[in-house]
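help with this:

***
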Amino acid sequence: MTVPVSARAARWRRRAIEALILIVVIVGIRAWQQRDVVSGATPSLAGTLLDGTAYKLSPQRPVLVHFWATWCPVCTAEQGSIQSIARGDHEVVTVAMQSGSSADVARHLTEQRLDFPVLNDADGRISAAWGVHAVPASFIVDRDGQIRFVEIGYTTEIGLRLRLWLAANFAVF
């Protein structure tokens, strides 16, 4: 038995409308998540990393600034990608947002076998300065200190690497 053309057209139209509604909802959620996120020149990012070394954001090449939290399951799922990028040829600094004491964050890193650079933002001041209300949040900063890309939520390793490559190879996009 074949479905009449008008029934198929109606079904296709309904699915197209449902897809359009889903896209609008996703775009709306992403816009809401990024409502306070900074753009343009980066806010100050300086402090002592968990390993005791001083850090100050002053990019000579693109940098991934990644906000995460020990209590965030999506962040945990993404940490392997961040680790891989940090062990590669890209500069990465991460900010543990409201995740407890430095000892708590260090314990989490040990348990997860992670060794990327971490600034502990126990009181949320760094996150507030960058406008981060949700984690994970990733910022790609170019060599001129300008934020080129912002991603809130899970982002694939290849997506982050592509954005780093674009920031390194194209001045304006």
Q: What stands out?
A: The mean pLDDT is 90. The chain has two domains: 1-33, 40-169. The first strand starts at residue 40 and ends at 41.
